[in-house]
Design brief:
heterodimer; A: 685 residues; alpha+beta; Serine Threonine Protein Phosphatase 5, Tetratricopeptide repeat; Neuraminidase; 4 domains; five-stranded antiparallel beta sheet; 13 helices; rod-shaped; B: 355 residues; mainly alpha; 75% helix; elongated
Chain lengths: 685, 355
């Protein structure tokens, strides 16, 4: 232990006992009521300190004493620091964090060293940001540490730790897709199990364990369980068989650790703790391993040779040695077994100023996995991968989180398929201390596939009516008026044959002429809609009979029965002129009256002695006097027309009767229409 | 009337013009015109969407007047509406026989043939209709749709061009030309066409969805999301829209938002296998593997040969440490056409060989 650290501990202890505001000292003042308990706690503290202050410190031995004292007084800052420190130097480093956090909380004036220990605990728990902050607080102390002190923390060390945290932050943002499974109780024990090596087909695994039952049965005086022995298990029915001790001659009373196995599983590389740590090779004879033999001076030196791996063809050996002349710490070397050429370093791409460890050549012959404290480690040893191509090694690639952790991750091997890897780790959840873990590489993230659809055609989504229909056809049957009846002699009532003229009042043209039946007097005419018909029934010796049918376009089908009594030319006979039209409310003759007027004029011309009285009549709508005046003026208008067309005025008179002589009740529209009339009466013949 | 009179006069001459007065009626009145009356009645029924009544009337019309071309045309249209497509085609055939070169009959027959999936014949009839009436936009449009569905996007675009030329206000033609441009990877033109369709017919909301698709292809994810939002603001009942917006959100790495959309799509249409599958995909991204497994399983239940769902379920099951089941799913996905399934199976050391 460094002088600095001892001083620091002293300061911590004293400050914790006297000065800290929240720290609870182990004193009678605090625990006067439990003198026995205080005495026990102080004794535990003292025993712990004895181990803790040993050189080198015996953390594993100190820890139980401290934990005993802690149960009595959990709120002493200095004790929490010591417990944290013991954990940081144990196989379960991450357990240090709650004690160191508590210490910092109890002691607001915590010194730089406490910050450093807390930073380490945070770092090892992958609390990168907080760890960086604590390293920065520890920095002044670290930079003042004397060189050569084993506990010293230099400024460079602190910077490196901070960089490791930054590496960890980056690597953690893009975790490697793996399953990491504890290999289970078949391989792992409550003590440390590590250094797995597998045959290429993963059928056999060899591990190193510090479990009880090791050859010689002795515990390692440096702690961490028993002396190492090598164990073997086989894969069957999707599980490992229970690992069995290889026994002698492979295992001895000293440390015996697996290092590697040949691809065919017939040769094994073994580490022995003799000569500073050497590599040996054992051969399998049937089912029995032979006594391991030294690999010779080109490989083993007085230094520390710890790890090795055969090339797939067995010609070369890759191994780790801290022999002089390396790049720093342990380095990785390569040697051709059957030649005499010296081992050569793998060079600066692989070997760093820091330690390299746990080399493994994959059965593909060009990919090595190794652990390094350098490169972009996130703390301690991280596992890296490099491929030898085109005559050089590729830049080592950190296998990333969560394979690598802030603590040491070493002795990584893979199966020939590359699908699985094995390594040891003290990650939480194991069976105790370091355990063997099996890594299943999942490869790059498998992208899920989505499905969607579009409705790209509007008419498929919302069809539109597109029917083209032929248009309607005209059906004429409804647009006609049938006029029928019987023509009779008004006096005798006998049927009478007469001529029936259809006249278009607008044009004045005669459209057609018919004759009523000579025997029955019956007639029938069809009047298509769309014409203002004047109908004139005439027969020699009779006055003409006038009817009007104004049928507009579209007028519905109708049948009208109209019996026509023909009157002879006698004085007093009255004839209604149905085809004389006036403007509404006026005495102005409308043009469509012309045919009827001409007919009247012709009658007067053909019958020179004939004298007529033109009479106007109205319905009872409006004032009687006004009606009378209007009827008179209308009668006069007819007279005026006739005189203007050659009829002597003396033959004509005009009379206005207004509403005085109705021919039908004025109560109906039809009746009022009949009452509005122009007629003449024969006054002389 | 004059002719009728003449007819009467000629008939009446031997009887000295005095007899046969009643015959005037027979000669001057039209006949009962049963065919025309029935035809017009059928037309009225058709317009009132009373298709069975329309069919009866057109039957009467044709019964009374077997060469009544228009009645065949309209009966065909009626039969089309009644989904009696073969008889519709037969009536159009007859109409064309009686009145060759009638574009309406060609167009109608094309539709009836299209309805029977006689695509080649339908396309021919649309072409015939266009020969007779090149400015008839619906014929251009319908032929374009057929060509689009055949994957003949260039020809389809020409047809939609023709439709737009004939009717510059035909929103559907712009919309579908947009889709054609989408297929032809002419993204700016597609976006423009969809915009024009919306300008002409703001309720043609599918243009928003399709424009969003194009914008996604053109890496304009924010615009696409805006269009989806606009659509859903107006129509919140379309599972497809939620499914597609969910996919866009997935692309935008908004997996929680995507899950919300896929869930809404499922709520609207519980049988929408795509939405189940897609929600499984988003669950995978959020590392909710059990949920992903359940969703993908539901998708497979709804769509037995759903390769994507098998693949996604394989991913979920791998992470659920159900290696054998994952292998089965990946292999099944490969069998159903997603070859990468075999790669996944091989990389994971699945037993057996690819089928």
């Amino acid at each position: 232990m460094s002088h600095f650290f001892r001083l620091l501990l002293f300061l911590l202890l004293t400050s914790g006992l006297s000065a800290a505001a929240q720290s609870v000292a182990f004193t009678k003042d605090q625990f006067g009521s439990d003198k026995d308990g205080l005495r026990e706690a102080l004794r535990a503290l003292k025993d712990g300190d004895t181990e803790y202050r040993a050189d080198p410190p015996r953390y594993a031995q100190a820890l139980p004493h401290y934990l005993q004292a802690q149960t009595f007084n959990p709120n002493n800052a200095a004790l929490n620091v010591k417990i944290g420190d013991c954990y940081l130097n144990s196989p379960t480093k991450t357990a240090a964090l709650p004690y160191l956090e508590k210490a910092a909380k109890l002691d607001a004036t915590a010194d730089a060293r406490t910050h450093y220990l807390l930073a380490r605990a945070l770092h090892l728990n992958a609390k990168w940001r907080e760890a960086i902050a604590e390293y920065q607080l520890a920095q002044p102390v670290g930079s003042n540490t004397r060189n050569g002190d084993a506990g010293a923390v230099t400024g460079n060390d602190l910077q490196r730790r901070i960089q490791e945290c930054r590496n960890g932050q980056q690597l953690m943002e893009h975790p490697t897709r793996v399953f990491i499974d504890n290999a289970g109780p078949e391989l792992n024990s409550a003590d440390s199990d590590y250094g797995p090596v597998v045959s290429a087909d993963e059928s056999t695994i060899l591990i190193t364990s510090r479990r009880s039952g090791s050859t010689g049965g002795k515990k390692d005086p440096e702690g961490n369980g028993y002396f190492e022995d090598i164990y073997e298990a086989t894969w069957k029915d999707k599980t490992w068989s229970r690992a069995t001790n290889l026994g002698t001659p492979v295992n001895t009373e000293d440390h015996n650790a697996t290092v590697g196995v040949s691809p065919d599983g017939q040769r094994m590389l073994v580490y022995e703790g003799t000569n500073g740590g050497d590599l040996l090779e054992a051969s399998l004879h049937g089912i029995t391993w032979g006594k391991p033999k030294q690999l010779g001076a080109r490989i083993n030196t007085r230094g520390h040779e710890t790890s090795a791996s055969y090339s797939p063809d067995g010609r070369y050996l890759y191994f780790v040695s801290d022999r002089p002349g390396g790049a720093g710490g342990s380095d990785i070397y390569k040697v051709e077994l059957e030649s005499r050429a010296p081992a050569v370093s793998l060079g600066p791409i692989i070997n760093t100023a820091y330690g390299e460890e746990g080399v493994f050549m994959q059965p593909d012959g060009k990919t090595i996995y190794f652990s390094s404290e350098g490169h972009n480690s996130m703390g301690g040893y991280d596992i890296f991968k490099s491929v030898f191509e085109n005559g050089k090694w590729s830049e080592p690639e950190n296998l990333g989180w969560p394979i690598n952790t802030p603590d040491d991750d070493v002795f990584f091997v893979t199966s020939a398929s590359g699908r699985h890897g094995y390594y040891s780790s003290d990650r939480p959840g194991g069976l105790g201390a370091k355990d063997i873990y099996r890594i299943t590489f999942l490869g790059p993230e498998k992208q899920p596939l989505l499905s969607e659809e579009d409705q790209l055609l509007a008419s498929r989504l919302a069809p539109v009516k597109q029917a083209i229909l032929a248009p309607a056809v005209a059906v004429a049957t409804a647009q006609v008026t049938i006029l029928k009846g019987t023509v009779t002699d008004d006096a005798t009532k006998k049927p009478l044959e007469a001529t029936i003229d259809l006249i278009d009042n607008i044009s004045g043209q005669t459209i057609a002429s018919f004759r009523s039946n000579a025997t029955s007097g019956k007639y029938l005419v069809s009047l298509p809609s769309g014409t203002n018909y004047g109908i004139v029934v005439r027969q020699d010796g009779y006055l003409f009979h006038s009817e009007n049918f104004n049928l507009p376009v579209g007028a519905a089908y109708a049948e009208v029965v109209k019996d026509i009594p023909m009157k002879r030319l006698e004085v007093g006979t009255t004839i209604v002129l149905r085809n004389i039209f006036f403007d509404t409310g006026k005495a102005t003759l409308r043009p469509e009256s012309k045919a009827e007027l001409e007919r009247l004029q012709k009658l007067l011309v053909e019958t020179p002695a004939l004298k007529l009285e033109m009479a106007g009549h109205t319905d009872n709508v409006g004032e009687a006097a006004r009606n009378q005046d209007l009827s008179k003026r209308r009668a006069q208008a007819v007279v005026t027309y006739l005189t203007q067309h050659g009829i002597v005025a003396t033959r004509l008179t005009a009379a206005g009767y207004g509403e005085a002589k109705p021919v039908a009740p004025n109560t109906t529209k039809a009746g009022r229409q009949l009452n509005r009339r122009t007629e003449f009466k024969v006054t002389a013949k | 009337m004059q002719k009728s009179l003449l007819f009467f006069v000629l008939l009446g001459t031997p009887l000295a013009v005095r007899a046969q007065v009643d015959s005037v009626r027979a000669s001057t009145l039209p006949g009962p015109q049963l065919a025309e009356r029935a035809y017009n009645s059928g037309l009225a029924s058709f317009n009132a969407q009373s298709y069975p009544a329309a069919l009866r009337s057109f039957d009467q019309a044709i019964g009374a007047k077997p060469n009544f071309a228009a009645a065949y045309t309209n009966r065909a249209a009626t039969r089309y509406e009644l989904k009696n497509y073969p008889q519709a085609v037969a009536d159009y055939d007859q109409a064309l026989k009686l009145e060759p070169g009638n574009y309406a009959s060609y167009f109608g027959r094309a539709r009836a043939r299209e309805a029977q999936n006689q695509i080649t014949e339908a396309e021919q009839d649309y072409s015939e209709a266009l020969k007779v009436k090149p400015d008839y936009a619906p014929a251009w449009y319908n032929r374009g749709v057929l060509r689009f569905e055949k994957g003949e996007y260039q020809a389809a675009r020409d047809d939609f061009d023709g439709a737009i030329k004939a009717d510059p206000k035909m929103a559907y033609a712009y919309h579908d030309r947009g889709s054609t441009n989408q297929k032809l990877n002419n993204h700016p033109a597609a976006v423009q066409d969809y915009a024009q369709a919306l300008a002409l017919q703001p309720d043609l909301l599918s243009a928003l969805l399709n424009r969003a698709t194009v914008e996604r292809h053109a890496n304009q994810l924010p615009q696409a999301l805006q269009d989806y939002d606009a659509y859903i603001a107006k129509r919140a009942d379309n599972a497809l829209a939620f499914n597609n917006r969910g996919s866009a959100r997935f692309e935008n790495k908004d997996y929680a938002g995507a899950i919300a959309d896929f869930s809404q799509a499922i709520k609207l249409d519980p049988k929408y296998a795509y939405a189940w599958n897609n929600r499984a995909a988003a669950q995978l991204k959020l590392e909710k593997y059990a949920e992903a497994d359940a969703d993908a399983s539901e998708a497979i239940k709804l769509k037995a040969e759903y390769a994507e769902a098998y693949l996604n379920r394989g991913h979920a099951r791998e992470m659920l440490r159900q290696a054998d089941q994952a292998c089965q799913d990946w292999r099944r996905a490969a069998e159903l056409g997603i070859a990468v399934g075999d790669n996944y199976a091989a990389a994971a050391g699945c037993a057996g060989e690819a089928q």
